[in-house]
Amino acid sequence: MMSATSAMEVNAEARRILAVSISKLYASRTQRGGLRLHRSLLLSLVMRSARDIYHSSSRESEGQSGAQPAAEEPMDTSSSPGNHAGVSQAEPQPELISPEPAAEEPRSPEEPCESETIEDKENLSPARQSRKRRGKASVAPDFLPSKRARLEPGEERHAAPLGSCRVRAGESLAVLSLNRVIPAF
Amino acid sequence: MNGVVSGGGGGSVFVHLPTLTFSISFASCVAADIISTVEFNSSGELLATGDKGGRVVVFQREQEVNKSQPQRRGEYNVYSTFQSHEPEFDYLKSLEIEEKINKIRWLPQQNAAYFLLSTNDKTVKLWKISERDKRPEGYNLKDEDGRIRDPSTITSLRVPVLQPMDLMVEATARRVFSNAHTYHINSISVNSDLQTFISTDDLRVNLWNLEITDRSFNIVDIKPSNMEELTEVITSAEFHPQQCHTFAYSSSKGSIRLCDMRQAALCDKHCKYFEEPEDPSTRSFFSEIISSISDVKFSHSGRYLMTRDYLTVKVWDLLMENKPLETYQVHDYLRGKLCSLYENDCIFDKFECVWNGSDSVIMTGSYNNFFRMFDRNTKRDVTLEASRENSKPRAILKPRKVCVGGKRRKDEISVDSLDFSKKILHTTWHPHENIIAVAATNNLYIFQDKVN
């Protein structure tokens, strides 16, 4: 059983790793040679671990102290835009995924930029981002929410799994829909 | 590449792990010259390197002309340089295709010419490297400059004669195998039948015939119908050295599958599955990343498989699937630093591993330009460094040691002083002799062992 302090430490560590991961995913969009599937997959696995540990250590701290874990601590991470957005845009939640029971399929990175190829007819995934070009500076990436998320076309097909998500009161870090992280590019 | 420092053999006996002397290094300072692959050919006479700029440089071992100095080993000199791949642009996906050479594999020599396969992320090419040392001269219809002569001036028949000329080494692209991979090619492997080869990307393995470029057979496809269910990718694949129907592929989850092409056209069902259960006590945020296999190599005997993950090298017996035969710690002192290595991206580095000719010693790279050798019989291991400062011609390589804690001895280097920008990802071992080539960023080091 973790002490309150170490639960908080683990919590902070998990948040830091999540922030670093987000900035890496963001940076990989502009990588020469295109998105690397292997790297994207590994990043998403780390993010999932960090997210799960963040949740469980949050619960630990809550259980121990009966209070919220410390609110946004200043994060000692690089100052890339991805980071700032990930830290500051904490409250509004996009699609939430609660800690799934082990049996449920884990979310995985969407194949990079494969949306429109003929090959993907077999692919049932509805989560296709718009391929409309966006100005680099003008629009924030999808996975860094600046406002309450709205349902995109095709979202309805996610209704069943999403419906089972429970919103955690007072979660202070954006919980990401990992399967949407990659197709945001 | 430029800057050749020459050296040669000296004289003392090695018993198990070779005592290596510094032989040659080739260096350059341009980023595009970062070496991305090294490979000896099957006789060891040639050594090929590929770089980030899409170039291939082939070195050839000097024939030992000086019989009176038998201990003077043949050195490797540049034999041929050519641009294998150029940067391309995929207009459909708005993606640049890097020209970086991911892998080079030689074909065994069957005639006077040499053949190698080189690949970037999307296209495999077969290159023929041949020598030309004769030139036809004495054309009847052309003058010496090659201009067509006025037919009215030609009064007799003259047959061109082959005259010797300065040796010229030409590389020509004989086949281009393209448009078969949606994802990034990570490996190629030539079959022992010498007629086919496989190319592997993150999700698929394709079988080609060396003569046919307009079609390939997909023999492994792990792409899920719903990409959101993707949990693992293929990281490397290799044909068995003797059995032309057997190949193995490694995954990002730390498992290896052995497949038999006789079983079915699509080898999605493995016939052997090698995986070691994870030790729950070492679980961390980064457990998945460090268990991802970066390289898989069959032993020359075909009895064993070697895999490299981030912290270890493992030798597997093909007859035992539930755990490796041997596990070697490459740089376990990094286990406590995984978070920093994640932040600086080093945790994604893909180290390769190699067998020596007799399968008794295995070698792999590490950071700070260190590389490690493990003797499977004596269980001894050594850490060596590829650096210009420490490499005088014919100098014996001094073993290095990393201090993991407590008092640091004089010659040791502490973990915090390691330079993580200096990594040795690519190494190759001569098929018969104790000669190794080590790529340290844009420097190539060749080491030979000392002999009496």
TrEMBL record, chain B:
Keywords: Repeat, WD repeat
Name of this protein: Serine/threonine-protein phosphatase 2A 55 kDa regulatory subunit B
Family label: Belongs to the phosphatase 2A regulatory subunit B family.
GO cellular component, as recorded: protein phosphatase type 2A complex
InterPro entries on file: PP2A_PR55, PP2A_PR55_CS, WD40/YVTN_repeat-like_dom_sf, WD40_repeat_dom_sf, WD40_rpt
Gene3D superfamilies, per the entry: YVTN repeat-like/Quinoprotein amine dehydrogenase (2.130.10.10)
Assembly description: PP2A consists of a common heterodimeric core enzyme, composed of a 36 kDa catalytic subunit (subunit C) and a 65 kDa constant regulatory subunit (PR65 or subunit A), that associates with a variety of regulatory subunits.
Protein species of origin: Myripristis murdjan
Domain of life, per lineage: Eukaryota
GO MF annotation list: protein phosphatase regulator activity
